[in-house]
Design a protein that fits this description.
413 residues, four-stranded mixed beta sheet, 2 domains, 1 helix, mainly beta, Immunoglobulin-like, 36 strands, Methylamine Dehydrogenase, Chain H, four-stranded antiparallel beta sheet, 5% helix
Length: 413
C-alpha cells in the first residue's frame, strides 16, 4: 500500500511540474508580456466592395477591418509577414517586426481590383487594338466596335450585313484609318475606314482580290499620308501594299510586293529591315522586309502562333508551350533563350516597355514583367474572372483581354 501511495505522489509531482513548466512566460501563446499589436488602414482601389470582407492574416492569426478600413491584430513579438486578401483583388503582403507591449502602426494595405471593367460585345472579341484613349474590337460574326477606355463608353458599332467573320483589326490613328479583315461572305477581304470621327467610321476602300485567308496584318504609317499594309495569307504567302489616302479611290492602292514562304504562317511583326514570321511547327523565321528572303530560322518548343519584337528580343506565343523568348540581335542566327509554359494555348501576345501579355485560350491571360527583357518574370495569371481569351492588348498599366463575352479591362498592379 505504501509503495502505491509513493508512486501516486511521485506521478502527481511530475504532472504538477509539467503543468507549471508549460505555463512559463517563455511560451509566447501564454505570455501576455511577449505580445504586441499591429494596426493600419485597408483601402480598395474602386471603393465598391465591402472593405470589411478583407482578411488580414499572419500565420494562424487573422482579423478583418472595420467599415472605415481600420484594423488591429495582436501578434507574438518578432518578425511576421502580413497578407491582406479579398476575392477579385490582388493580394498584398507586408513585413513587420512586432515589439513586446508596443503597437506598430501604419501597416497599411491598398488592394487593387483585378478586373476594372467589362465591355460587352455582340460577337466574340477575336482581335483588339488599343491607343491612348480608344479600344478597337473585331467582333467576329458581328462587325467591329470602338470604345473609349478612359470613359468606358461605347462610341460605335459597325456591322455590314455582308460581313461574316471580322477576325483582325488594325489602326493608324495618325492617318485616321482603321483596317479590318473579314474572312467570309461576299465582302471577304481587307477593308479600310476613315475614323476621323470614331463614333461614325466611314468606309473608304476595300481589297478583296489576292486574299487567301489572312492570318495577320501589320499597318505602318508612311510619308506623304501613305499607309503600308502587309499581310500574311494562310497559303504561306505574304503581300505588301501601299495605300495613299490623298489620291482618288481608283489610284489608292499601289502594289508593293508578294512572295511565298513555303511553310505555314500564323503571325508576324516587322521593323524597317525585317519581317518576323511565327510559323507554327517550324518556329520563328526572320526575313528581309524588302523581298522576303529568309535570313534566319529558330525552332521553338511549341507551335509559334504570334510574335512581337522589341529591340533585339522576339517574344513568341508558342501555343502549348506558352512564352518563348528569342535573341534576334543577329538575324542570321536567332537563339532561343528561354521558354515559360502556360496553361491553355498561348495564341496572341502583346509587349510594352514594361510588360508582356499573353492570351492563352482556356488558360486565361498571363502578364509578365520584362524589366529583364531576356528573363521575364510572371506577375499575374488571370483565369477564373474572365472567359476564354482570344486576344490581348497592353496600354500603360492595363491589359485588355478579348474573350467570348467581350473585352475585360484588367489592372496589372
Amino acid at each position: 500500500m505504501l509503495q502505491t501511495k509513493l508512486r501516486f505522489i511521485t506521478m502527481s509531482v511530475v504532472i504538477i511540474f509539467l503543468l507549471i513548466r508549460c505555463a512559463q512566460p517563455n511560451d509566447p501563446a501564454n505570455a501576455n508580456n511577449e505580445m504586441g499589436m499591429v494596426t493600419g488602414i485597408v483601402t480598395l482601389s474602386d471603393n465598391q466592395a465591402d472593405v470589411q470582407l478583407v482578411t488580414i492574416k499572419a500565420g494562424t492569426a487573422e482579423t478583418h477591418p472595420d467599415a472605415n478600413g481600420a484594423y488591429q491584430l495582436e501578434l507574438t513579438a518578432g518578425d511576421h509577414g502580413l497578407t491582406a486578401s479579398l476575392a477579385g483583388y490582388y493580394s498584398q503582403s507586408r513585413d513587420v517586426t512586432v515589439q513586446t507591449d508596443q503597437t506598430t502602426d501604419s501597416i497599411d494595405f491598398a488592394l487593387t481590383i483585378i478586373v476594372e471593367d467589362h465591355y460587352e460585345t455582340i460577337g466574340f472579341a477575336m482581335d483588339l487594338q488599343v491607343s491612348d484613349s480608344l479600344l478597337y474590337v473585331a467582333e467576329d460574326q458581328a462587325g467591329f466596335s470602338v470604345f473609349n477606355h478612359v470613359t468606358d463608353q461605347k462610341l460605335s458599332w459597325f456591322d455590314n450585313p455582308q460581313f461574316e467573320n471580322v477576325r483582325l483589326i488594325r489602326v493608324a490613328e495618325s492617318r485616321n484609318r482603321l483596317v479590318i479583315y473579314n474572312k467570309y461572305g461576299t465582302a471577304a477581304g481587307i477593308h479600310v475606314y476613315d475614323i476621323a470621327d470614331p463614333a461614325a467610321p466611314a468606309p473608304v476602300f476595300q481589297i478583296i482580290s489576292q486574299i487567301v485567308g489572312v492570318q495577320d496584318i501589320v499597318v505602318t504609317p508612311l510619308t506623304n499620308n501613305n499607309l503600308g499594309i502587309n499581310w500574311l495569307n494562310d497559303d504561306g504567302s505574304s503581300r505588301k501594299y501601299n495605300y495613299d489616302g490623298v489620291l482618288t479611290p481608283s489610284n489608292e492602292w499601289t502594289s508593293g510586293f508578294s512572295f511565298s514562304f513555303n511553310f505555314e504562317v500564323n503571325g508576324m511583326d516587322e521593323d524597317s529591315d525585317h519581317l518576323y514570321i511565327a510559323s507554327e511547327q517550324m518556329g520563328l523565321y526572320i526575313c528581309g522586309n524588302e523581298w522576303g528572303e529568309t535570313l534566319g530560322i529558330v525552332d521553338t518548343p511549341g507551335e509559334a502562333l504570334d510574335v512581337k519584337v522589341v529591340d533585339t528580343i522576339a517574344y513568341v506565343a508558342d501555343k502549348t508551350q506558352g512564352l518563348s523568348v528569342i535573341d534576334v540581335s543577329d538575324p542570321t542566327n536567332p537563339i532561343l533563350l528561354t521558354s515559360i509554359d502556360t496553361e491553355g494555348y498561348a495564341q496572341q501576345i502583346d509587349v510594352s516597355d514594361n510588360y508582356i501579355a499573353i492570351a492563352s485560350g482556356g488558360g486565361g491571360v498571363y502578364v509578365f514583367d520584362r524589366s529583364a527583357p531576356t528573363a521575364p518574370i510572371l506577375l499575374h495569371h488571370i483565369d477564373a474572372l474572365i472567359d476564354y481569351s482570344y486576344s490581348v492588348a497592353l496600354k500603360g498599366d492595363m491589359v485588355f483581354a478579348g474573350t467570348k463575352s467581350g473585352v475585360f479591362k484588367i489592372n496589372i498592379h
